[in-house]
Amino acid sequence: MSGDMTHDEGHGSVAVEQEHGHGVVAENPFADPGLPEHQPRLTDIDEKVARKSERIVAGLFILSALATIAFMVCYTEVPNNTATIVDFFPIGAISASNFALGLTLGVALFSMGAGAIYWARTLMTDVELPQERHLLESTPEDKAVAAAEFQQGLEDSAWKQRPLIRRTLIGAMAVLPLPALWILRDLGPLPGTTQRQTAWTAGELIINDNSISLDGTQGSGIKPEDLQVGTLVSASPAAVLTAGDNAVNMMTMSAILLVRMNPADIKSQQEIDWGYEGIVAFSKICTHVGCPVQLYEQQTHHMLCPCHQSTFDLSDNGRVVFGPAARSLPQLPITVNADGYLVAKAGFDQPVGPSFWERG
After folding, report:
1. Cβ pair 243, 275 in contact under 8 A
2. Helix, strand, or coil here: 12?
3. CA 74 to chain centroid
4. Which of helix, strand or coil describes residue 303?
5. What is the model's pTM?
6. Nearest residue to 196 via CA among 354, 350, 357, 355
7. Number of C-beta neighbours around residue 155 at 10 A
8. 74 sits in which H/E element
């Protein structure tokens, strides 16, 4: 057997053995170049520059706190309605409230992140420390070393030596969660008021949702002859046409579904009394979590909620036949007025929407 052996000290140990025309390369053919020589930053050697960086970081943290407070002020004071929609170039038409909230929250989060990054890049230690990856649990000695390195890192970060950064960071982080508490005000008022009271009153005209104009000021009523057996129509009270900025909330709470069935298919006497010639009206809000129901199966008279598949039998008082909903859809008693249009006899006999603790 014949072969050659070469050794290159400049590029590490490389052994090549020629045997039958094939080469065999030894393990680790390239030497570890190691880390480059550490170059100190200006903040490492000039305390005046370091203090300037400290003030910049503190300023960013203070800006974050102020922007967070501004977010809460804008949330409360800037109205969110059609009168405050402004054309912001190049974004386009947007609510002034949404723009103010997005701007202030964005500044708060950006300033917090930018301050932390600038702090790490200019004042925390930047000495490169290679560390081998271990596949198994570290030994107690390694854990002790890690704890010591953590303590060393705390000292290198100048956390104790830079009280201005420490205090402003703590202050900004203390203020940052406040918007989460601030926006809880939208959960009020208590459901005992909003869910028991809708826009439906005796004689309230029922209008077809599809007939409401874009500006929400015009809509047409519904006559019994407009509905054939099997027809499903989304409807609202005529009061939404004059509700202004409150129209959306009113439609949400008072939305109903009109369905015309063969009177012989209706199982409940109450449903016959509360309907008109086979036309019945039910709340459109699922009693599980408030999703809109509008998937109607004509043959079985079942209404399906698309969110969690609660199923209601509209031929039997809106009774729940499947799914997580705990109670039937509220029914609206209806009749016709002197002009032949469908109107409400009264309001709902029970709160609409999901169940809540005050429902008796």
Report:
1. no
2. strand
3. 19
4. strand
5. 0.50
6. 350
7. 12
8. helix 47-77
Listed in sequence order, the residues at least 6 apart from 54 whose beta carbon sits closer than 8 Å to its beta carbon are 123, 162, 164, 165
C-beta separation of 50 from 40 below 8 A:
no
Phi, psi of 48, rounded to the nearest 5 degrees: -65, -45
Topology annotation, domain 191-344 = Rieske Iron-sulfur Protein (2.102.10)
Q: How many residues does this entry show for the chain?
A: 360
The tokens describing 96, both together, are: 């002034």
Q: Where are the domains of the chain?
A: 1-31, 42-128+141-186, 191-344
What is the spatial distance between Cα 187 and Cα 184, in angstroms, rounded to a whole number?
A: 6
**Helices 96-122 & 163-175, crossing angle to 10 degrees?**
150
Q: What is the pLDDT along the chain (360 residues), one digit of tens a residue?
A: 344 444 444 444 444 444 444 445 556 666 767 777 888 889 989 999 999 999 999 999 999 999 999 999 999 888 877 666 766 666 667 788 888 999 999 999 999 999 999 999 999 888 777 776 656 677 888 889 999 998 888 888 888 888 899 899 999 999 988 888 777 766 655 554 555 678 888 899 999 988 888 777 788 899 999 999 988 899 999 888 887 777 777 888 888 999 999 988 888 888 888 989 889 999 999 988 889 898 888 889 899 999 999 999 998 888 999 999 888 999 999 999 999 999 999 888 888 888 765 455
The two three-digit tokens of residue 31, written as one number: 């030497």
